[in-house]
Amino acid sequence: PSKGAFGLGRVAMPAEVAAWDIDIRPDGMGLPAGKGTVADGEPIYTEACAVCHGDFGEGAGRWPVLAGGQDSLTRERPEKTIGSYWPYLSTVFDYVRRAMPFGDARSLSDDDVYALTAYLLYLNDVVDDEEFELSNENFASVRLPNETNFFDDNRMDEPHYAKGVEPCMSDCKPGPVEITARAQVLDVTPEGEGDENT
Amino acid sequence: MVSETEPKGPKTAASRRNFLKTGLMAGAAVATGTGVAKAAGDPLITEIQDWNRYLGEGVDAAPYGSPSEFEAHVVRRNVPWLTADPVSSINFTPLHELDGIITPNGLCFERHHGGTAVINPAEHRLMINGLVDTPLVFTMEDLKRFPRENRVYFLECAANGGMEWRGAQLNGCQFTHGMIHCVVYTGVPLRYLLEEAGVKTNGKWLLAEGADASAMTRSIPMEKALDDCLVAFKMNGEALRAEQGYPLRLCVPGWEGNMWVKWLRRLEVGDEPWHQREETSKYTDLLASGKARRHTWVMDVKSVITSPSPQAPVTHGKGPLVISGLAWSGDGTIKRVDVSIDGGRNWQQARIDGPSLPKALHRFYLDINWDGSDLLLQSRAIDDQGFVQPTKNELRSARGENSIYHNNGIQTWHVNTDGVVENVEVS
């Protein structure tokens, strides 16, 4: 069926592609028809999400925080949430539909996911109207606050990447080397080989 | 110890097994005292041992063998406080107990986002769709009819050493460097599959997707996909382990482990990256400025001394000491490894032994005569592109402390006069 050299495989049926190809790009490519409001999303969130992510997206225990943390990215302990860190709303819709709720993925309808996404925008103060409706029509017009703060890998500009510099081999530090930090002090490593990490 | 007081003579299988277990402790004690022989001689030599008298297991006892019971401590370990749940979590390869460059399949670290998917290969499908002439579906049987390649590659988690950005935290190279493994992969070059579907001229990116409950997705530039990526179904000669993506995984040589999508079920060709969760929220590197790098794919030149290390202290006293370690680079082969015993003041060139393969682990050794004094051990790798492994402080001055990923800084182990080893940072 294919034009390839080996003639292996068969043509994928449109229904098969539709079943698996659910990814969404920032420009909205891949979005299904549908809609949902902040108010629609609130009960879905409370039912399916709040047990792990907290009533307001603050995260229960060590489960991920979904909201808040704005202006924390330069602090000692940044809080990277949808509102403070994520660049694109498409990722929210795509990931929730693809992999959430944790342990029951693919269980939400497209309208549910629109409503949940709208509610997450509300929890993150990106929208403030409980009647705000998110749909495939207006989706790509919504921007997240941190979109412009990502750039492609430029590690090569860091000084230590200079190629072909012969590293120092002897008398590389002026005096005796001092210990400045010790893992033993923190004592957070699981105990010896025999235990079962209880 | 127990072996010396235990009555000799015929034993039941059960008591022999019990003896073997206690013998593990006794053996360790004997091993540390090999220099001290009693006048009457070492009873392990002068007395007939059980294994010299009684028959061992037959060839039908273990159709699929396991390590010796005396190696029961050589296992993957996890650090429960690192993640909220063991299902979306990480465990660590016991690097301190291994040698050579190949990781045994059962010890290869695991990183799942939705647990281990269990898939019957007869029910597995791989789809290619998007900007292709013909969208295709392959079965595993189809994939095994393409020409194959065998390649040795390391797979390193982008977060390997991530807990150490702020300073020395976990005490053992299993925990600080063990999100890595290196095996022989057998598979089909990805380009054969893409050519079979026919990539359109505007097809510049590839989305790889897993079949597990996280449906892992990553965007990969087409140049890499057509270069050296493999769609692999075997590791170290046998089928992939379930936790490593059975029956099919993607290999993206030299690049961060997250992109090596397990349980690979779909490849979509597109003209732009998708900016999926694992390349926006995760696997982006926050800098001190508050801005973040994305698409930091390559794993840079790196090394670690695996012994001595905190889990592998020096128990034999002064004299000959083998310093053993691993070095690797996502950019190619390792050309040289330098080792310092004084915290980076002075360096000497180590000896690389074994195969030197691109984007694979390399084993190095430095054989020294330990005088029993404190050591501050470091290793520094240099790859064939001329990149030199940086210090942690060089990395921090360029990036701050919140990058999480891509920590390839030089590791320091403090060996004290008792041979006890600790993870430290030095001036």
Automatic annotation (TrEMBL), chain B:
It comes from the Bacteria. Residues 294-411 form the Moybdenum cofactor oxidoreductase dimerisation domain. PROSITE patterns: TAT (PS51318). GO terms for molecular function: heme binding; molybdenum ion binding; molybdopterin cofactor binding; sulfite oxidase activity. Residues 113-274 form the Oxidoreductase molybdopterin-binding domain. Its cofactor is Mo-molybdopterin. GO terms for biological process: sulfur compound metabolic process. InterPro entries: Ig_E-set (IPR014756), MoCF_OxRdtse_dimer (IPR005066), Mopterin_OxRdtase_euk (IPR008335), OxRdtase_Mopterin-bd_dom (IPR000572), OxRdtase_Mopterin-bd_sf (IPR036374), Sulfite_DH_SoxC (IPR030835), TAT_signal (IPR006311), TAT_signal_bac_arc (IPR019546). Pfam families: Mo-co_dimer, Oxidored_molyb. Keywords: Metal-binding, Molybdenum, Oxidoreductase. NCBIfam families: sulfite_DH_soxC (TIGR04555), TAT_signal_seq (TIGR01409). This is Sulfite oxidase. It comes from Hoeflea phototrophica (strain DSM 17068 / NCIMB 14078 / DFL-43).
